Amino acid sequence: MVLISPSMLSCDFAKMGEQTKKVSDCGADMIHLDIMDGIFVPNITFGAPIIKAVRKYSDKIFDVHLMINDPIKYIEDFKNAGADIITFHYESISDVEETIDKIRSLGMKASLSIKPNTPSKDIFPYLDKLDMVLVMTVEPGFGGQSFMGNMIPKIEELRDEIERRNLDVLIQADGGIGKDNMKLLYDAGVRCFAVGSSVFKADDMEKAIDELKKSAKDI
Ligand code: DX5
Ligand code: ZN
Q1: Are 135 and 172 in contact (CB under 8 A)?
Q2: Which residues surround ligand 2, an ion (CB under 5 A)?
Q3: Distance between CA atoms of 36 and 34, rounded to whole angstroms?
Q4: CATH number, domain with residue 45
């Protein structure tokens, strides 16, 4: 299984609805929506009302990545806007367990993310309650950055722990992903790929998504 979740951060925001539809028609499995508050990360993007507005352009899974300081305050807003999966950061100030419980109590899938400097083992205690973990392969905040290859051992540690405990937790990677590192990530245990520039900067989006999927399994 290879799931591609194009990051709308790299789309043309003036045409966000159209672009959401286009990427959905071009083979995206999910739609990755990056929410930044200018505090947790040094950049501001958009909030729940924008997600609500683009929700009608796609029936794909809305994979909402919250890079915000106090995510628990906004979980309900994102649910009402149409989120299916909510990823929040371990490094944010909200209580991790309470936030996971809140996401799940509203019928969404819960996912926890770690920034590059956070060790994998910090989130081991929460794995039983999670549907997904997101390992950042760039410092969160901006699209178009270079992939950090030294995140691979962290991903492998998570994969090994998930397997050892026989859990059903999907591993997502996010940041600097393209054809050149898909296989490396796949072999380390990633099955869900948040990809911005490599999808939206391509001339042919359908071909780009197809090639990303194929490159995960290339020898
Ligand atoms: C970074 C975001 C990513 C980013 C991915 O903070 O979480 O989703 O937009 O974009 P690329 O693939 O261009 O690194
Ligand atoms: Zn993201």
Answers
A1: yes
A2: 34, 65, 174, 194
A3: 6
A4: 3.20.20.70
Number of domains in the chain: 1
From the CA of 160, how far away is ligand 1's center (Å)? 25
Which residue carries 């591993």 as its tokens? Answer: 171
Residues 6+ apart with CB under 8 A from 183: 215, 216, 217, 218
40 occurs within a structural domain: yes
Residue 2 forms part of a structural domain:
no
| Contact status, residue 140 vs residue 67, Cβ threshold 8 Å | yes
Marked catalytic residue, from 29, 34, 63, 131: 34
Atom 12 of ligand 1: nearest residue by CA position: 196
Q: Residue 36: helix, strand or coil by DSSP?
A: strand
Domain region containing 193 = 12-216
The pLDDT tens digits of the residues spanning 72-127 come to 999 999 999 999 999 999 999 999 999 999 999 999 999 999 999 999 999 999 99
**Cβ-contact 135, 122 below 8 angstroms:** no
Encoded amino acid at 75, one letter: I
**Cα 217 to averaged position of ligand 2 atoms, centre (Å):** 23
Q: From the centroid of its chain, how far is CA 54?
A: 17
Reported pTM? 0.98
Decide if 1 is inside a domain: no
Q: Would you say the CB of residue 178 lies under 6 angstroms from ligand 1?
A: no
Query: Would residue 7 count as lying in a domain?
Result: no
32: nearest Cα among 203, 153, 211, 195: 195
